[in-house]
Specification:
Helix 4 crosses helix 6. The protein has 20 helices and 30 strands. It has a domain at about 525-645: 2-Layer Sandwich (GMP Synthetase, Chain A, domain 3), CATH 3.30.300. The mean pLDDT is about 95. By secondary structure, it is α/β, with parallel strands linked by helices. The strands form nine sheets. A seven-stranded mixed beta sheet has the order 5-4-17-16-18-19-20, with helices on both faces. A five-stranded parallel beta sheet has the order 7-6-8-11-12, sandwiched between helices. A four-stranded antiparallel beta sheet has the order 21-22-24-25. The longest helix has 17 residues, at about 110-130. The chain binds adenosine-5'-triphosphate and magnesium ion (MG). The site of adenosine-5'-triphosphate has 27 residues, from strand 24 and strand 25.
């Protein structure tokens, strides 16, 4: 970004008060902000007491060697005990922990007592394979219960896991195995994807032919689809043969609060993924607290569903560790939202009576594209709260979500955070905050975030700049695995003493925070810094548009020119006047400076496997360049289709 701050183009007047009933019984009230403001560290020490410690910590934060933090360093605990055993001991063994829904329609309800047995057996099995505390285990599985068992089993024996999204290639898997120096890989024959079994095991076999993977001793294979699998005698072992014969009782051992819990690679939206290291006590404290606070979880009555994949941080923090630490009942769904029909998700909400739903803007916009009539065909009356994460949610997508999924009655919480932050950082509180569509609004109690300009000075309300986190937080990354220097350079050198998130942001007139996309994506048009997010949101606010991706392409007159790629909404048709109408619409919403020079209707946008738009590839297209790294792209044919469209439109 240049010296000039990010323009603040969009205004949003709509406000939604918390539902009276929810506010009256909310887990968190405004008093939490006061408590945290009065004494931030005491507030977090208090939250740490939601966990069961074998040895209670007496220390909270140690920031004597910044930016290397320790939290609760003299405490000792076992994460799996906290997520499983203690609920059984408290008499909740019969409560369903996981309602598993397979893509083909098979299902399984797993109680906390069963979860305890499964995790215990898996822990014994890993020990039999020679895994010791500190050894890394790679997990490459579909969305099946064994993914949760495996993660918790690793945590139980103190072996940091590195979960690799099941949609990644052998190459991507190999890089992560090598970087984490894993000793064991846990995988399956395959998983169900779009109505057919998709193989996983062959990718592991291929990955393990790459140099640097020699340390992998064993491959533990879950049978999910029953498809044929190549077998390496002596290395490969079936889960059902090894795990099922283990004792169902296992004594969890306590580990130091700063013992590594997992390494997870970022989505790679902006470049080469980073191996983010999270540890035990601070991480679990923050994910448990934020899950309780932001989703208002009532473990006895709520049915929670986070649609993310366990391969992403959202799956780690808000499918596995946060909800299970809180004793939640949750849904785990294996497949795609449109198998066998576009209403599959809503059918699942209806079937299990889901009350709390957490998903991503990409999914919401896809549903907008499929049409309003799809969710209308199901009873979604059980829902009482909706969450969003992963990208800025366009105000119009927020409104659609609230109206068509939430029946215009339930609160929507837009949660900003990153793999690096481990847990939610900025979000409305459903019983407190008057929500604004499109804004993540306020840092959670105990979290300090602001927006700064190029020189690191806090911007005034009504201005834009960079999002910065000004105080350490319990679930912060501890480093980039094996690369402290990259940790320092990436996050702590831009604004000394403060964490640089890499996201553009603005504060509105009320001081609420709006996320405006990646700093790398900000456009410079005739001397103005313009956010891609705001132009995209203006396009999505046109009734014909479901989704938009905007980039700045080099332009001789204006430095950069705005190029927009748009997907039409269900029912809308491409017509000759549409492009002009859209340009006029953006000019009206944001001002003439933000009017796209070119608008191209497309059928799909390039996305990472976690569903985020990869603008850098669209910029390559718009500037007629060779495409950059496409390995984290979901479907590379999307780029061919977009490129084919290009010459005809101007
Ligand atoms: P890489 O760092 O490798 O480029 P990534 O940043 O996509 O990958 P993640 O950690 O999965 O990997 O994503 C975090 C990013 O997602 C945030 O920095 C932000 O840009 C975006 N994000 C997440 N939630 C929100 C939200 N509620 N509003 C706006 N942006 C969000
Ligand atoms: Mg990132």
């Amino acid at each position: 970004m240049s010296k000039e701050s990010l323009a603040n183009l969009m205004t949003e007047e709509r406000r939604f008060a918390p539902p009276t009933e929810l506010a009256a019984h909310a887990n968190i009230t405004a008093a939490a902000y006061e408590a945290a403001d009065a004494d931030r560290l005491a507030f977090w020490a208090e939250q740490a007491r939601r966990l069961s410690w074998e040895q209670e910590p007496t220390q909270t934060l140690d920031w004597s060697n910044p930016p290397f933090a320790t939290w609760f360093a003299d405490g000792r605990l076992n994460v799996a005990y906290n997520c499983v055993d203690r609920h059984v001991e408290a008499g909740h063994g019969d409560r369903v922990a996981i309602h598993f829904e397979g893509e083909p329609g098979d299902s399984r309800a797993i109680t906390y007592a069963e979860l305890q047995r499964e995790v215990s057996r898996a822990a014994h099995a890993l020990t039999e394979l020679g895994v010791e505390a500190g050894d890394r285990v790679a997990i490459y599985l579909p969305m099946i219960p064994e993914a949760v068992f495996a993660m918790l089993a690793c945590a139980r024996i103190g072996a940091p896991h590195s979960v690799v999204f099941g949609g990644f290639s052998a190459e991507a898997l190999a890089t992560r195995i090598v970087d984490a120096d894993a000793r064991v890989v846990i995988t399956s024959d395959g998983g169900w994807r779009r109505g057919a079994p998709a193989a996983l095991k062959p990718a592991v076999d291929e990955a393990l032919t790459r140099p640097g993977t020699e340390a992998v001793r064993s491959v533990l294979v879950v049978r999910r689809t029953g498809q044929e699998v190549p077998w390496h005698e002596g290395r490969d072992v079936w889960w059902h043969e090894l795990v099922d014969r283990q004792p169902e009782q296992h004594t969890p051992q306590a580990f130091d609060a700063e013992h590594p819990l997992f390494i997870l690679y970022t989505s790679g939206t902006t470049g080469k993924p980073k191996g983010i290291l999270h540890t035990t006590g601070g991480y679990l404290t923050q994910v448990a607290y934020t899950h309780h606070a932001v989703f208002d979880l009532k473990p006895e009555s709520d049915v929670y569903w986070c649609t993310a994949d366990v391969g992403w941080v959202t799956g780690h923090s808000y499918i596995v560790y946060g909800p299970l630490a809180n004793g939640a009942t949750e849904v785990l769904y294996e497949g795609t939202p449109n198998t066998p029909h576009n209403g599959r998700w809503w059918e699942i909400v209806q079937k299990y009576g889901v009350t709390l739903l957490y998903t991503a803007p990409t999914a919401i916009r896809t549903c907008m594209k499929w049409g309003d009539d799809v969710p209308a065909g199901f009873d979604l009356g059980s829902l009482r709260l909706l969450g969003s994460v992963g990208e800025p949610i366009n105000p119009e997508a927020w409104i659609w979500y609230r109206k068509h999924i939430g029946g215009d009655r339930v609160p929507v919480v837009d949660t900003w955070w990153q793999t690096e932050t481990g847990g939610i950082m900025i979000s409305p509180l459903p019983g407190v905050t008057h929500a604004k569509p499109g804004s993540a609004q306020v840092p959670l109690p105990g979290i300090s975030a602001t927006v700064v300009d190029d020189d690191g000075n806090e911007v005034a309300n009504g201005s834009g700049g960079y999002l910065a986190l000004t105080e350490p937080w319990p679930s912060m990354l501890r480093t980039i695995w094996g690369d402290d220097q990259r940790y320092l350079d990436t996050y702590w050198s831009r604004f000394p003493g403060r964490y640089f998130a890499g996201d553009g942001a603005k504060k509105d007139a009320d001081g609420d925070i709006w996320l405006l996309g990646r700093v790398d994506d900000v456009m410079l048009v005739s001397g103005h810094n313009i956010s891609t997010t705001e132009v995209e949101s203006a396009l999505v606010s046109h009734p014909a548009i479901a989704e938009a991706a905007v980039v700045g392409a080099t332009d001789p007159q204006t430095t950069q020119a705005i190029v927009a790629f748009v997907i039409l909404r269900g029912g809308a048709a491409e017509n000759p006047g549409l492009v002009d109408a859209l340009r006029a619409h953006v000019a009206k919403e944001l001002g003439p400076i933000a009017k796209p020079k070119r608008i191209l209707p497309v059928d799909e946008l390039p996305k990472t496997r976690s569903g985020k738009i990869m603008r850098r590839l669209l910029r390559d297209v718009a500037e007629n360049r060779e495409l950059g790294d496409v390995t984290t792209l979901t479907d590379s044919t999307v780029m061919d289709l977009i490129q084919a469209k290009l010459p005809t439109a101007a």
